[in-house]
């Protein structure tokens, strides 16, 4: 057995993800080459589309807002050792909470509507995650399987709710009534004309606040310490007198509530009504975001912007290079999940060995120098 | 309730249960060997696309089927490499493989055929035709047996018969052969298998190889038998229904068949119930019937009706002692 030592911290949180990210982009580039297009041109188009002008930046930030919530949702559960794959469903049903509060109060003022809608969306999303959490904690059903099932149950439930309950009689389209202007979460372009027609709205401030709050929660509170202990070693947390089942349920509820904030961005800030499938798989992007961001709020914030840029740039891509459609972005996303999540073991051992060799060499040099010094 | 309705429902149930059955049996081999597989959907999708593409280009349905199976095996091996050799997280590997399949199939479909992600319409030899079983026509007029044999059992695609034949074969392999014993053992107690001098890694790769074949057949069924060509995300979550069926039947081959028939029936019912008013209850929400397989699985998982306990070593990469 060769000598192995954990990586230095910087290599663990910067170098390794960078290598994995580079691999994902490299393979995606090869796919683009394979169909006879220039990957460098594609990169250029994506970058311009995402950051080149006001609308682009706005759209990038709008997508990033969703991805921050989805990433945090996955990360909070992951810190407690839970694999919450149900962010999508949790965000979807949270739309119910948001729209019901919104439609009831939209004659008042968004300053009243927004916090109440957040509470409602968080409660509904949290509840949708609490059930799998309860089943894991008390009945031992695997949370991965139950959250997958709950995604599909959520989809069926929402189709029913939108078509049979929320749809006004005078419309054909499957959507709820539209919110009054007073109750909508303001879009940033109302104050900053730079953002053009992009839908980025004040929810992005909530997203930033959530990043900070998540950092404090996970690393600077008793609850966060307990959640991490559970995640690292459930036996230890149990012997230390913590209630594992209580912690599992709390972690899932917080995770689902976090995913529920996607509904605020989409329903209250962009669509202004409840439409089918408004989450658009943001929950799954959250998995990639959390993995590449190493479940740390700073990493998640950066990764969310990266994916926001990919999604927005990807839209641009198909106008400029018709052969490269926006599905290319899904391929990149899948490869990122594959390399940083499932195949992390591909480069880590080599990297660890490299660092061991490096440190041995340095030590040898130091001893050599010391011997020379003592002899002279 | 007339007899024709019952016959057509029974027929539809068999047709709709087939891809579920193939996929669920695929998952059975993998999960029984200790590899959780939430990537069934991805393999099916990749296979459906490859099968339709090759069938469209060559005009030969068998080449299409072969291509679908090969692509499914390759996808499975990628997932296996991550979960077995690299000892990565099996759940994440499954998610990644599914996403990769969704992205790649739509992307390549659009690039190659430029029909909004669809592959060209298949006809003639490029698509499976229903098979009429021997004497089906002669027996059609015999009461009961005629209806059963000629109207329900006869007239399906070959993959339907393959799927139902795979059930006894799987049961035999799993419970009556050395390979099956070892396969179940690596899923329950890999350390014991290792101590006996058998390679856990090899055993698991063999298991997921079969998974790849069966998932490939399941995917191909969508695009070159039931459908005539590939459409975006055409497997429509059926991989997850199959996963649910596998869990619902507690990872056992014969119950898997009955569960898939039940879920297939629910699917047929759901199609038939669109906009139908029933006496007393009124219009039953179709969505409830659609969600029923998932709800039933959750209820079972929760232990309210029996208890589903998976293979003990499932989801855990095997690490030899250092």
Describe the structure.
- The complex is a heterodimer of chains A (376) and B (322).
- Chain A is mainly α and 376 residues long.
- Chain A has a domain at 63-308: ABC transporter involved in vitamin B12 uptake, BtuC (Orthogonal Bundle).
- Chain A has helices spanning 9-34, 39-51, 54-79, 87-105, 110-139, 143-166, 203-220, 222-232, 234-239, 244-271, 282-292, 297-320, 327-342, 348-375.
- The radius of gyration of chain A is 23 Å and the shape is globular.
- The mean pLDDT of chain A is 90.
- Chain B is mainly α and 322 residues long.
- Chain B has one domain.
- Helices cover 69% and strands 1% of the residues of chain B.
- Chain B has helices at 3-32, 40-58, 61-85, 90-113, 136-139, 145-153, 158-176, 178-188, 190-195, 200-226, 238-248, 253-272, 286-301; strands at 277-278, 282-283.
- Chain B has a two-stranded antiparallel ribbon.
- In chain B, strand 1 (277-278) and strand 2 (282-283) form a beta hairpin.
- Chain B starts with a helix and ends in a 21-residue tail after the last helix.
- The relative contact order of chain B is 0.20.
- At the A-B interface, helix 6, helix 11 and helix 13 of A face helix 3, helix 4, helix 11 and helix 13 of B.
Short summary:
The complex is a heterodimer of chains A (376) and B (322). Chain A has helices at 9-34, 39-51, 54-79, 87-105, 110-139, 143-166, 203-220, 222-232, 234-239, 244-271, 282-292, 297-320, 327-342, 348-375.
């Amino acid at each position: 057995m060769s000598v192995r030592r954990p990586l230095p911290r910087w290599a663990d949180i910067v170098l390794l993800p960078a290598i994995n990210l580079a691999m994902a982009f490299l393979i995606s580039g090869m796919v683009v080459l394979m169909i006879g297009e220039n990957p460098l041109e594609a990169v250029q188009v994506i970058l311009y589309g995402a950051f080149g002008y006001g609308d682009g930046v706005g759209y990038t930030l709008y997508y990033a807002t969703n991805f921050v919530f989805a990433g945090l949702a996955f990360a909070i559960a992951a810190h407690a050792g839970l694999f919450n794959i149900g962010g999508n469903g949790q965000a979807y049903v949270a739309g119910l909470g948001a729209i019901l509060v919104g439609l009831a109060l939209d004659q008042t003022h968004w300053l009243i509507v927004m916090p109440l809608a957040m509470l409602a969306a968080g409660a509904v999303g949290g509840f949708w995650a609490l059930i799998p959490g309860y089943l894991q904690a008390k009945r031992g059903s695997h949370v991965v399987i139950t959250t997958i099932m709950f995604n599909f149950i959520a989809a069926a439930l929402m189709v029913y709710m939108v078509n049979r309950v929320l749809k006004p009689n005078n419309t054909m389209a499957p959507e709820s009534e539209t919110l009054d202007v007073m109750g909508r979460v303001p879009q940033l372009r109302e104050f900053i004309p730079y953002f053009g027609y992009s839908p980025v709205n004040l929810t992005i401030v909530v997203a930033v606040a959530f990043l900070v709050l998540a950092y404090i929660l996970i690393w600077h509170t008793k609850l966060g310490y307990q959640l991490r202990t559970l995640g690292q070693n459930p036996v230890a947390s149990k012997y230390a007198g913590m209630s594992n089942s209580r912690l599992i349920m709390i972690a899932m509820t917080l995770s689902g509530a976090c995913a529920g904030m996607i509904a605020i961005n989409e329903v209250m800030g962009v669509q202004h009504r409840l439409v089918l499938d408004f989450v658009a798989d943001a929950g799954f992007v959250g998995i990639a975001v959390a993995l590449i961001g190493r479940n740390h709020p700073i990493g998640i914030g950066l990764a969310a912007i990266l994916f926001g840029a990919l999604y927005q740039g990807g839209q641009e891509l198909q106008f400029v290079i018709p052969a490269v459609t926006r599905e290319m972005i899904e391929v990149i996303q899948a490869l990122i999940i594959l390399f940083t999540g499932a195949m992390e073991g591909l480069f880590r051992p080599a990297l660890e060995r490299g660092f061991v060799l490096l440190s041995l060499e340095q030590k040898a040099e130091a001893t050599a120098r010391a011997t020379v010094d003592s002899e002279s | 309730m007339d007899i024709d309705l019952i016959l057509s429902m029974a027929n539809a149930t068999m047709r709709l249960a087939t891809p579920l059955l193939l996929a669920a049996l695929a998952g059975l081999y993998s999960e029984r060997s200790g590899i959780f597989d939430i990537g069934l959907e991805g393999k099916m999708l990749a296979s459906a696309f490859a099968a339709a593409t090759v069938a469209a280009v060559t005009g030969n349905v068998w080449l299409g089927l072969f291509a679908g199976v090969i692509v499914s095996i390759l996808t499975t091996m990628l997932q296996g490499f991550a979960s077995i050799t690299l000892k990565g997280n099996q759940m994440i590997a499954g998610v990644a493989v599914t996403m990769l399949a969704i992205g790649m199939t739509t992307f390549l479909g659009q690039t190659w055929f430029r029909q909004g992600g669809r592959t060209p319409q298949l006809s003639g030899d490029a698509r499976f035709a229903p098979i009429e079983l021997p004497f089906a026509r002669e027996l059609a007029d015999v009461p009961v047996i005629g209806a059963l044999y000629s109207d329900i059992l006869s007239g399906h695609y070959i993959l339907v018969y393959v799927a139902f034949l795979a059930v006894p074969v799987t049961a035999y392999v799993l419970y009556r052969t050395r390979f099956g014993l070892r396969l179940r053992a690596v899923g329950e107690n890999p350390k014991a298998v290792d101590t006996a001098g058998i390679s856990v890694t090899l055993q698991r790769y063999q298991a997921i190889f079969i998974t790849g074949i069966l998932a490939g057949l399941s995917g191909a069924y969508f695009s070159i038998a039931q459908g005539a060509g590939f459409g975006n995300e055409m497997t429509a979550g059926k991989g997850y229904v199959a996963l649910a069926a596998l869990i619902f039947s507690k990872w056992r081959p014969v119950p898997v068949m009955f569960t898939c028939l039940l879920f297939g029936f629910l699917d047929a019912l759901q199609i038939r119930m669109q906009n139908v008013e029933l006496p007393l209850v009124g219009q039953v929400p179709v969505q409830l019937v659609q969600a029923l397989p998932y709800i039933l699985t959750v209820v079972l998982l929760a232990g309210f009706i029996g208890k589903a306990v998976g293979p003990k070593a499932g989801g855990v990469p095997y690490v030899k002692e250092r």
